[in-house]
Each structure stands twice: as structure tokens, then as C-alpha cells.
Amino acid sequence: MTTSFQNRENVRRQAFESIWESQIDAVFSDVAAVYDRANDFASLGTLNGLRRRFIATIDVSPGQRVLDVCAGTNVVGIDLLKKEPNLDIYAVDRSDAMQKVGSDRAAQQGFDIKGHICDVHRLPFPDNHFDVVTLQYATRHLRVIDVFSEINRVLKPGGHFYHFDMLRPASKIIEEAYCLYLRGCLKTISWAIRVGPEARNCCDYFIDAIRLFYSTDELSRLLSELGFSDVIGKPLLGGTVAIHKACKV
Q1: Fewer C-beta within 10 Å: the chain N or C terminus?
Q2: Distance between CA atoms of residues 122 and 69, nearest Å
Q3: CA nearest to 21, candidates 115, 124, 94
Q4: In this structure, CATH architecture of domain 3-248
Q5: Which GO terms describe its biological process (predicted)?
Q6: What DSSP character marks residue 32?
Q7: Helices (H), the chain
Q8: How many CB atoms lie within 10 A of CB 108?
Q9: pTM over 0.85
């Protein structure tokens, strides 16, 4: 691992660790019931289409064991079971409230997703356990090197990791326009859904988290340095989001 990525992670941790440790849970508990609608609004209705593109990239076969990290409301697990009903899907998340919404949603549609509440930096599974691991719309709130290393550990050799998230655009002009849009959007959503003080107080954090995060190419290089192979990163919407696919050697 090059010092540049280690230094970036140290900067992120120093800037955000207190928020990650003491505020993020409260934010997601506050918005759990409306989380998916709020994300759809913030993306101007594009998120569902982007997620369909993400699901389409995920190669699964009957009987495979799949882990969805930071599963939230289980949208990815449910979509994968619609794509291939004979999957053994596990979900991990630190938010009880988000997983309660996700568990209810899966049950209403007749799907079985095995949920675990845990710290995703230390996954409660043995080495070489999963055929596929997914992670979407959460990495900005995590210690990336630690989580990606854990994902590599629990993947079987030849297994695949699929990642989808908001990223920092490589273009400074796009980054500035994007952050300006997000600032106004977050304030509007906070007012519209009447979020609690924890979520309102984190509006600036969500912008700062993008500014200190990785571009598509940077995340690809990080995955490669962590030992993944055949890394593919596809930027979308000017690099404001991206889909990555990587293989465990």
C-alpha cells in the first residue's frame, strides 16, 4: 500500500472519525423510513436507473453465497434475488433502523436475507466464504482500506467484489458544481422530510466527505494495491458516481 493512500485515509479519519463514531448511526436511524425516497429525490430520479445498471453488472449463479456490505434497506439484496432467486444472501450493516426497514421489505416480497448488525470494518465471517460481495452508497462513511481488506479476506479466490457509490469527480469544475448542488439539495430534503437535528447538523459533513473521497481512477488503483485483480471502474454522470468490479486472486 503506497503512502499516498495511507495518508489520504489518515486525513479522512482525522476529519470524520468523531462523526462516524457518534453521529452517523443517529442520522440513519432518523431517515431510515424515507431513506430510499430521499436518495431518489437527491439524484433527480436517476438513482433507480443507476442501480439497475449496477445490478446488471453483477454476475451471479444459483446457489452462490452473496454478502451485501452496508446493506441498509436491502435494496441490492432484493434486486439480486429478483434476478436469481436461488442465492444465499447475507446482509451486514451497523444500523438497526435501516436493517429493520430492509428486513420488513424483504419479508413482504417473500425473500430471505440473513441480516447481521455489526461493525463492517470487522466482518463476522471466515476467510474465503463468499462468492460475491457488494457494497453500495456507503463507502464515504467508512475506513476504506480496512473495509476493502476485510472484503478481500471473506471472498473466495476467484470471487468478485462489486462497488457502487458517489465519488469525487476528477474534474474540479464538475466537483464544485456537484458540491454546490448537493448543498442546496440536502437542505431542501432536510426541510421537506423534517429530519432531526443530527441529520441537519451533518449536511456539511456529506459535502466534505465527497471532497476528501476518491475519484473513479483513484479507487481503481486502491483496489489494485489491496490485492484485487481485473479491476474495472466505470464513471457515470461526469464521475459523480461510479461502478467498480474487482476479482480476488
Answers
A1: C
A2: 11
A3: 94
A4: 3-Layer(aba) Sandwich (3.40)
A5: menaquinone biosynthetic process; methylation
A6: G
A7: 3-22, 24-31, 35-42, 47-57, 75-83, 96-108, 144-154, 172-192, 197-201, 203-211, 216-225
A8: 9
A9: yes
